Amino acid sequence: MRHAKAVLHAALACFFFKSGEDDYASLGNAMKIVRQKDFSSGLLYIILGVAFAVASYGYRMGTASRMGPGYFPFWLGVLMAVIGIVVALGAIRLDAEPQKMEHWALRPLFIILASVLVFGLLLGTFGLVLSTIALIIGSSLASHEFTWRATLINTVVLIVFSLVVFVYALNLQFPVWPTFIAG
Amino acid sequence: MELFDNLMLGFASALTLQNLFYAFVGCFLGTLIGVLPGLGPLATISMLLPFTFGLEPLSALIMLSGIYYGAAYGGSTTAILVNLPGETSSVVTVLDGYQMARQGRAGVALSTAALGSFFAGCAGTLILAAFAKPLTEFAFAFGPAEYFSLMTMGLVGAVSLASGPLLKAIGMIVLGLLLGLVGTDVASGVMRFTFGLPQLWEGVDFIVIAVGIFAFGEIIASLEHKEVREAYTGKITNLWPSLSDFKQMMPAVMRGSAIGAAVGVLPGAGLSLSSFFAYSLEKKVSKTPERFGKGAIEGVAGPEAANNAAAQTAFIPTLTLGIPGSATMALMLGAMIVHNIQPGPQVMTSNPSLFWGLIASMWIGNLMLVILNLPLVGIWVKLLTVPYKVLYPAILLFCCVGVYSVQNSVFDLFLAVGFGFFGYALKKLECEPAPLLLGFVLGPMIEENFRRAMVISKGDFSIFIHRPISAILLAATAVLILAVALPAIRNRREEAFQES
C-alpha cells in the first residue's frame, strides 16, 4: 500500500507529461529501473498485449460498422500494450520510491501445482481414490510442518469425505476406481 | 403494496423445508471455508460451487447466496479471533475486534458483528426489493450502446474505487476482457485464441480462472510464510452485549447500514470500501475517538453492518441489469449461468418466483447467520486451531473437484494449474487480480454490445454520445477517472486504504 501512491503519481505524471524540474536534472539516471515489480508488470502487459494483437490480426478485421472477429481484440491488445509501456516507463523514473522484486517461493509453487497436475493426469485412468491419495500426499510435502502421520490420516478422511459427499450424496460424475478394476 | 406481494411470493417459494435446509447448508459451508484466513468469498464460492450442482435452480441460488454471506461473515470471525482479516472487507474489523477479544470481550465482539450484520442485511434486502422493479423497467429502455457504456462505467468504477495503482488495475481489466474473448466468436463462428484445442471452443470457464488465480495462488503464497498463526484460545463467554453496549452500537449499525447500502450499489470494491468508510465515519462522529483501535464497539458494529448491507445491495445491478459490479458478483453471475439462469431484466418477468425467492432467501440467509454464528461460535474457534498443513490439502482437493466437475474435464484442471502459476506471479508483481475476473465475465457482453451498437450506427462512434443515457453514463465514467486523477481525491483514496 505504501507503494501505491508513488506508482499512481508516477503513472499519472507520465500520462499527463507533468514532470517536475528535478526530474530533468536526474534524467541521465532515469534508465535505472527503480521499481522492479512495476517494470516487470509493464513488460508482462506489453508482451501479452502484443501477443493478443498479433493473434487477432490473423482474423478478419472488418470495418467499424461490420466488425470482424479480429477488430475488438486487436484494439484491446494494442491498448494493453500501451498501458504496459506507460507502467514500465513509470517504473524507471528516479523519483519513484524504490521497490524490489520479491523472492519467489519456488518449492511450494512447484509442489502444489505439480500435485494438481498429477491429480488431473491420474483421474481419468486411475480414478478419484488413487488420484486423491496422490494429491493429498503430494501437496502435503509443500508444508514445512509435514509429518507422515497427519498426512495419512488426512488422506483417509478426505477420501471417505469425497466418496460420501461428492460421489454418493451429490452424485457428481467421477471415475472412482481404476478402469482396469472397475472395467 | 406491490412490494409486499412480491416479497410474500418470494417467501412462499423460499420457505419450503428443502430450501431452508439448503440455505442453512450454504451458510454453514460458506462460514466454514470463509473463516479460514486468506480465503474470501471469491475463492469460497468457486470452491463450493459443485455442492450446488444437481439442485433445482432456486435451491442452488439460495445455497449460493448462503455461501456468499457465510464467506463474507466468516472473515469477521477470523478478524476478531485471530487478528487476521479473512478478506479485505474485514480489514477494519481487525482493529477493534481483536482488541475486544484481548480484553475478554470476544463474545461481545462476535455478537455485535452478527447482530449488526443481521440488521444491515434486513435493511439491504428491503432496499434491493424496492429498487429491483423500477430498475428492471429502466433496463428495458437500454439498447446496445447504453449497455456498452454502462459496462464501461462499471469496469472503470471498479478500479477507481479499488485500492492500488490505477493503471495496473486497468491493465488487468483489459487482460480479463481479452481472456473472456477466447472461444467461438458468436457473430462469425470463428474460433479465437484456441490454439486449435477443441476444449477451448467454448472459452475458459470462470471457475478455472477463479480457482487458479485466487485459491491456488493464495495457498502457494501462504505456504511461503513460516510464522505460526496465533488463534484466540480463551473460552468465549458472555455473548450478549450489555445495555450500554447496545446504546453504543445501535447508532453505528444504522449509519453503517446506510453507508453500506449506498456504496454497495456502486461498481467495484463495494464491500471493502464501505467498511473503510463506515469506520472513518464512526471515528469522526465519536465523542471519544481515542478509544478507536483499542476495542471500541462502534468500530466493529459500523463496518460490519456496512459490509453486510453492501453485500446485499451489490446484487442490485447484477440481478436487474445482468451486469456484475464486482469480481464476486461476476462469480455469482457465472454460477447462475451454470444453473441456466441468465440474470437480467427478463428474469423478474419470466421467473418471478425464482427472482423474489432469491431475494427472500437473502433475508433468511442473514437470519441463519445469526443462528449459526452465536451458538455455534465454538466450532469456528476450534476450526481456527486446526493446523494449516491439514487444511490446505483439503482446500486443494475441493478446488480440484470443483474445477473438474463444472464440465467433467481434466483439461480444465491443467488450465487451472497454468492460472495458478500466473496468479502467484501476479501476487509477486503486485497486480490486483480481482479486476481481471470482472473483465473476464464482461468481455463477451461488452464486445457483443459494442459491435451491435456500431452496426446500428453504421460505424459511427458518436452513437455512444448521441444517445442520452449512454452519454450520461460515459460522462459519469469520465468524472470517475478525473476524480481519481485529481490530487486531493487521490490522497483521500490512499488515506482510506492506508488505515489498514
Describe the structure.
The complex is a heterodimer of chains A (183) and B (500). Chain A has helices at residues 2-15, 21-25, 36-57, 71-91, 106-140, 148-169, 179-182. Chain A is built from seven helices and no strands. In chain A, helix 1 crosses helix 4 and helix 5 (106-140) crosses helix 6. With 183 residues, chain A is an all-alpha fold. Chain B has 500 residues and is mostly helical. Helix content of chain B is 74%, strand content 1%. Chain B has 23 helices and two strands. In chain B, helix 6 packs parallel to helix 10 (243-265). Chain B starts with a helix and ends with a helix. The model of chain B has no long low-confidence stretch (mean pLDDT 83). The interface between A and B is large, with 81 and 75 residues.
Keywords:
heterodimer, A: mainly alpha, 7 helices, disordered N terminus, B: 500 residues, mainly alpha, two-stranded antiparallel sheet, 23 helices
